[in-house]
Design brief:
By secondary structure, this protein is of the alpha+beta class. Among the domains are: about 80 residues, Beta Barrel (Thrombin, subunit H); about 250 residues, Rossmann fold (3-Layer(aba) Sandwich), CATH 3.40.50.1820. About 15% of the residues lie in helices and about 35% in strands.
Length: about 650
């Protein structure tokens, strides 16, 4: 075993192409009768989201031909944007198309799919009417959806939201008056999500919240009667309120309502009987049974035959027997379930991930037989190259540690370059999945430490709320704490830091902190100027900062890395999407200008056609290779086969 080649420059069979283009992102899953349909994002097709199923031989087939793209821009983060609906030949597909955000219907038959036909009207502004969180109202021949109406540039005060009913026969495509606003005449809310019909079609539940709250702060669950003609009747609040986050409401077959509520400081399933007004918590395990509502339409639970519920405690799929209260994990290898569904027979479909498993779409029959319909990767990692994660805490701060892993090489203690990765949000969590991108680094001798700083989800509400008023402060301190801990015990020989969006703010904030332990940092579409973010970001997050930082512009200025750049002396790589509506390109450009003025080695790479997060294979490959090359140049080791990054050096 080689112990002489410096960690970071170990030869590896894992290429950037394999990390980026060898597979797909598995997004959402649903049943169309007995068939399982799913959506997948494809880097090789520019990030296009295609809806798929399997043919009689079990092979994946596309239901949506290129260039059609099933992707909604509601909240800019989108979510599930498609649904199967009954058609002449079984089931048809309804989806939101990325280019214009209109709803379309595709007839699916034995001879393939027909050309999509519009269901929703053409908006006055391009992409001005957006639809997500689709629900079928079969008996009335219509689709329910959350609709955004854009009246300007998408910033605060220029977007309205409601729940609408869209005819499935296509008549509203030419007559906007046929789209019914179900909440007309009711008090308006800034945000809406999860419209769900009762099995009998006579009741509707949904959640709402208002600025400045985010859906993990305070939401309200509503229940309304639905008249035979489809209009809403009496509406009442059934859960949630100030300081309580309720998400993913829905009906059980008997008409009772299940919600995920964090009133216990953990998102847990609560069963509500609307007729009696009674309620009970089904499981009191101190684990999160839901994830923060960044994307609409993903399900946190599903009813299964025999009085069971398919749930996701701590992100892992499990079955709850509602009679006995027994909670049974489906597979200890599955660390994350990102979407789930179940049909009336008890068949379950799940998109699962594991520490040593790539993302998979797995179908579990009532007999227990499992079938993998789709894998996120076409080419598995070579044997011996998957890193085994270790869960650690540093002064109460959670981190997942991925050691350098290459069967032909070994690193001595105190020699490993460690990349601390900071998730976005900041109200989010590191996802415990087998990542080819992580293995791209660990196979070359890097360690990777995924930091769940204070403010992260997955550890209960007090940990999540700890960042309130302290963003760009505690997250930075926590990243520095983890880095110093790894350096102090010899796990790391040097510390690097990388993050995107809110994680990019933490990166830039750490690099502009006095005495920080980092040798270099990579910020992907990160925030440098918090006051500029408030002025330019999209409506969904436009008042997010009021909870995280308050409203004093001086506080925002003091916490902005751009303002503190006088303390910067660490090389920086900036990666940015040219069409990012959330963290606009001027953020990266301004920080690059300060680096140039101070003579700090840096590079700015802008991908003109990318938004918030890189989807196209070429952009993702370039970004990954640039990060590796940047670390090699800063730390002084070779990165064979990777194009160098041109750094602006002092005096250049």
């Amino acid at each position: 075993m080689d112990t002489t080649t410096p960690p970071g420059s170990w030869p590896s069979p894992i290429t950037a192409d394999q990390a980026v283009t060898s597979g797909r992102g598995l997004d959402a899953v649903a049943f169309a009768g007995v068939q399982v349909w799913w959506s997948e994002s494809r880097p090789a097709e520019g990030g296009r989201v295609c809806v798929c199923t399997t043919n009689a031989a079990g092979d994946p087939i596309d239901l949506l031909p290129a260039p059609w793209n099933a992707r909604t821009r509601v909240h800019e983060y989108g979510g599930t944007s498609w649904i199967p609906v009954p058609g002449r030949n079984g089931f048809d597909l309804v989806f939101t198309h990325l280019a214009d955000q209109r709803l379309y219907r595709v007839e699916v038959g034995a001879n393939g799919a027909t050309e999509p036909q519009p269901l929703s009207p053409e908006p006055d502004l391009p992409s001005g009417l957006r639809y997500a969180d689709l629900a079928l109202d079969e008996r009335r021949g219509r689709l329910l959806a959350v609709r955004e109406t854009h009246r300007g540039d998408g910033t605060f005060g220029t977007v309205d939201r409601t729940i609408v009913a869209v005819p499935l026969d296509g008549s509203a495509a030419a007559d906007a008056d046929l789209v019914v606003d179900l909440l007309a005449g009711q008090p308006r809310s800034d945000f809406l999500a999860s419209p769900r019909l009762s099995p009998a079609g006579d009741a509707l539940v949904w959640i709402s919240w208002n600025h400045p709250d985010m859906p993990w702060d305070s939401t309200t669950a509503h229940l309304a009667d639905v008249a035979r003609g489809g209009h809403l009747g009496k509406t009442r609040v059934i859960a949630g309120g100030p300081g309580i986050s309720v998400i993913d409401p829905g009906f059980l077959p008997d008409g009772s309502v299940l919600v995920m509520s964090d009133e216990s400081d953990w998102w847990q399933p609560i069963l509500i009987d609307p007729r009696r007004g009674s309620r009970r918590t089904l499981v009191e395990v101190q684990q999160e049974f839901a994830a923060p509502l960044w994307s609409l339409g993903r399900r946190q639970w599903a009813p299964v035959t025999g009085g069971r519920l398919l749930l996701r405690p701590a992100g892992r799929p499990a079955l709850l027997d509602t009679f006995s209260g027994q909670l049974t994990e489906l597979d200890p290898r599955w660390t994350v379930v990102s979407d789930l569904a179940a049909d009336r027979s008890g068949t379950m479909a799940l998109i699962v991930h594991g520490d040593d498993l790539p993302g998979q779409l797995v179908v579990i029959a009532p007999s227990g037989r499992r079938t993998v319909l789709r894998s996120a990767v076409d080419e598995p990692l070579p044997d011996g190259f998957a890193p085994t994660p270790e869960l650690r805490t540093f002064g109460g701060i959670h981190a997942v540690i991925y050691p350098p892993t290459n069967p032909g090489h070994r690193a001595d203690r105190g020699t490993v370059p460690f990349v601390l990765t900071i998730h976005g949000g900041p109200t989010a969590q590191h996802s415990r999945t087998l990542s080819v991108t992580t293995a791209y680094f660990t196979s070359r001798g890097f360690g990777v430490a995924a930091v769940d700083h204070r403010g992260s989800t997955g550890y209960g509400r007090p940990y999540r709320d700890a960042l309130q008023g302290h963003w760009a402060e505690l997250d930075i301190a926590d990243a520095i704490t983890v880095a110093r801990g790894l350096l102090a015990d010899g796990t790391a020989g040097s510390a690097l830091i990388s993050g995107g969006s809110a994680g990019g703010l933490t990166v830039l904030g750490a690099l502009t902190s006095e005495g920080n332990p980092f040798s270099a940092g990579v910020s992907s579409y990160g925030i440098g100027d918090l006051n500029a973010l408030v002025a330019t970001t999209h409506d969904f997050e436009s008042r997010y900062l009021e909870g995280l930082l308050g409203t004093d512009p001086q506080v925002l200025l003091n916490r902005s890395p751009l303002h503190n750049a006088g303390r910067l002396n660490t090389p920086v790589l900036l990666l940015q999407g040219g069409k990012d509506p959330i963290v606009t390109p001027d953020q990266a450009e301004s920080f690059a200008a300060v680096c140039a003025a101070k003579g700090v080695p840096h590079a700015l790479i802008v991908f003109p056609d990318e938004g918030h997060g890189f989807r196209d294979a070429t952009a993702r490959r370039t970004a990954l290779q640039a990060e590796l090359a940047f670390y090699g140049q800063v730390l002084g080791f070779e990165t064979p086969g990777v194009p160098p990054v041109v750094l602006a050096e002092p005096g250049a």
